[in-house]
Amino acid sequence: MPAWFAALDPVSQALVATMGTYLLTALGTTPVLFFRTAPRRLMDALMGGAAGVMVAASCWSLLQPAIEMGGTWPAVVGLAVGGLFLFGLDQLLPHLHPEFPDEATQEGPRSGYRRAVLLMVAITIHNFPEGLAVGVAFGAGSPGPALALAAGIGLQNIPEGLAIALPLRREGMSRLRAFWYGQLSATVEPIAGVIGCALVLVAQPVLPYAMAFAAGAMLYVVVEELLPETTRQGNTDVATLGFLSGFIIMMAMDTALG
Predict the structure, then answer these.
(1) What local confidence, expressed as pLDDT, does residue 27 receive?
(2) For residue 164, which of 218, 230, 97, 112 has the smallest C-alpha distance?
(3) Which residue from 24, 145, 176, 185 has the highest number of Cβ atoms inside 10 Å of its Cβ?
(4) Could you give the CA distance from residue 60 to residue 191 in angstroms, rounded to a whole number?
(5) 70 CB contacts (<8 Å, ≥6 apart)?
(6) Residues 6+ positions from 125 with CB-CB distance below 8 Å
(7) Which residues contact 128 (CB under 8 A, 6 or more apart)?
(8) Predicted pLDDT of residue 162
(9) By C-alpha distance, which of 107, 59, 57, 47 is closest to 227?
(10) How far apart are CA 199 and CA 136, in angstroms?
(11) Is the distance from CB of 239 to CB of 163 less than 8 angstroms?
C-alpha cells in the first residue's frame, strides 16, 4: 500500500478508492467511442464475472467481517434490511435496468419520464450499494481488505459501463453521449463511499449492521438484475463460467490483502 494512501484518514481513503472505481468504469466504457457492438457472449461472460465479484465481495469482504465483529444476528438483520431497502426502491421508483438497456422494460410505478431519466435512476439504485460497501469497509479501519473490495468493485465496473453504453450507441446515440451514460454509472460511488465511511466512524456500533446492509443490497442487485440479464440470450454456460471466475478472483484478492 503506498505510504501517501496509508497516511490519509479513512474518509479520504474511501474517497480516493471510490474515485478509482469510477475511473475504471470510465476506462471500461471507452470502447464505445470506437465500436458500436461487441459479441453478446463476451458481454454475458464479463457481466457474469461482475456478478461473481459482487457475490464474493458480499461474502468475504462484508458478511464475514460483520459476523466476526457483531455476531450472527446483526449480520442477519443488516443483510435483510439491505435487501428489503433495494426491493423497496425497485417498487417505488420508475426505472430501467441499466445493463443492456435496449432490452429493458420500465419497472416500478408507471411513468412518462424519458428513457434517459429512467436509466439514471436505475444507475443510482444499482451503484450506490457498491460505493457504500467500499466506504463502510474503510470505516472499519482495515485498509487492506477495503482496498481489495475497492479493487473488486472497480474490476466489475469495467464491463458494466460498456454494457450500458453499447446498446445506447446501437440505438443511434452519439459516441460521446453513449460514453457519458456509461461512465455516469459509477459517479454516485464516491458520494456513497464518503457517506458510508463517515457513518460508521461517527457511530461505530452500527458497523456490522452497515457491512451486512451493503452486502444485502449488492446481493439483491446480483440476483434481481445481473444474473437474469446475463442469461437472457441463452448464454448460460459462459455467464456461469464468468461468474465462477469473478468469484475466485475476488476471493483471492480478499485473502491476499486481508
Answers:
(1) 93
(2) 97
(3) 185
(4) 23
(5) 207, 208, 209
(6) 86, 89, 90, 93, 95, 221
(7) 188, 189, 192, 217
(8) 86
(9) 47
(10) 8
(11) no
Low-confidence ranges of the chain (pLDDT < 70): 1, 95, 98-104, 108, 111-118, 120, 258
Distance CA 103, CA 96 (A): 9
**Rounded CA gap, 230 and 206, in Å?**
35
d(CA 19, CA 13): 10
Q: Which residue in this structure is represented by grid cell 425497485?
A: 90
Residue labelled with grid coordinates 459516441: 175
